[in-house]
């Protein structure tokens, strides 16, 4: 993430409070859905009956009203991306906050960008700094409700352009399950975005008691989207934006390893988890943990099968920035486990997702359709609505 200050930051040296406020007002504008003919010529949307819609599984929305309510927590000071960053990185992030806040909170700007990128539908999820796990449980649950209501409202206004992924207050397992039920059953959200840790604790830490949360996610049959927000212990990563560049994939690697080795994936065989940023490092260096599992008894205390057999059940977005790396990911885990993602609207995102997928050598039309939209439709349990044929 490039944001190291809250969108309602009042630090005068950052000079972006006015921009954030303006964006907050514009986010309420109701925008008509753009017709297919109005979309970008460079890539364009999927057109015609039976064409697979292009769905972005990895994109974020910041709710300005919720950000204002949460500002009493001074959340920026609690974000590891801010704590473990030098002043240059903080300044660069503040400038990007000013430049990109409309993309993050303004639906009109977002729709235009989607058309330019050739994206038909966004499975929009909260900006990671709106997890608010560090809030007291009651307040955290309230903030999660507000975030989810806002995303549901966006979907309701533009049902053919957006699907919703929500958030839950993982700092309290009971509240998390309660909000999960409401988000899915009452709001119709298609899944839940979670961080890779809860205030520095692994998701499998017994004190969090999140086993009931994972079990309920599996029972509901919805998808988890795991997205890191900086590395939690990054004293050596403060320069060069390394807490994001290296830290985010490392966070995912650690979180997935615990889900595997602590048995969450074994106990929940139908749990569906999509990993941001191509799954971090583990997806590309899985053989080491398999070797360790064969060689050492201390890796067999919970799971008996080889670790990669659980990794093969995860799903991965396409954010590799390299066609050969994406090809390797597809070869290893199958096209049915890879989904188009952009990380919109961040600077570490993929600006040309269709171009990246199109540059993968020897990718069949069927596999391309799965990656660009078919897998998302299946995971999020969406059936494309066929428009009735025009009367002659």
Q: Can you offer a commentary on this structure?
A:
- This protein has 392 residues and is α/β, with parallel strands linked by helices.
- It has one domain (52-379): Alpha-Beta Barrel (TIM Barrel).
- The chain is built from 16 helices and ten strands.
- The strands form two sheets. The chain has an eight-stranded parallel sheet. A two-stranded antiparallel sheet has the order 5-6.
- The radius of gyration is 20 Å and the shape is globular.
Tell me the layout of helices and strands.
Blueprint: H1 17-26, E1 55-61, H2 64-70, H3 80-83, H4 87-105, H5 107-117, E2 121-126, H6 137-157, E3 162-166, H7 173-186, E4 191-194, E5 197-198, E6 201-202, H8 211-220, E7 223-226, H9 242-245, H10 247-261, H11 264-267, E8 272-275, H12 287-295, H13 307-311, E9 315-317, H14 323-333, E10 338-339, H15 353-358, H16 365-379
Parallel strand pairs: 1-2, 2-3, 3-4, 4-7, 7-8, 8-9, 9-10
Antiparallel strand pairs: 5-6
Helix pairs in contact: 1-4, 4-5, 6-7, 7-8
Overall geometry = globular
SSE string: HEHHHHEHEHEEEHEHHHEHHEHEHH
Instruction: Report low-confidence residues grouped into runs of 5 or more.
Output: 1-44
Radius of gyration: 20 Å
Work out the helix count: 16
* Cα separation of the termini: 51 Å
- Chain-averaged pLDDT: 86
- The tally of structural domains comes to 1
The CATH H-level superfamily is Metal-dependent hydrolases
How many β-strand stretches? 10
Helix-strand category = alpha/beta
Overall helicity = 40-55%
Spatial order of the strands in the main sheet?
1-2-3-4-7-8-9-10
Based on the structure given, which CATH architecture is correct?
A: Alpha-Beta Barrel
Largest sheet: 8 strands, parallel
Strand content: 5-15%
Q: Briefly, what CATH class?
A: Alpha Beta
CATH fold label:
TIM Barrel
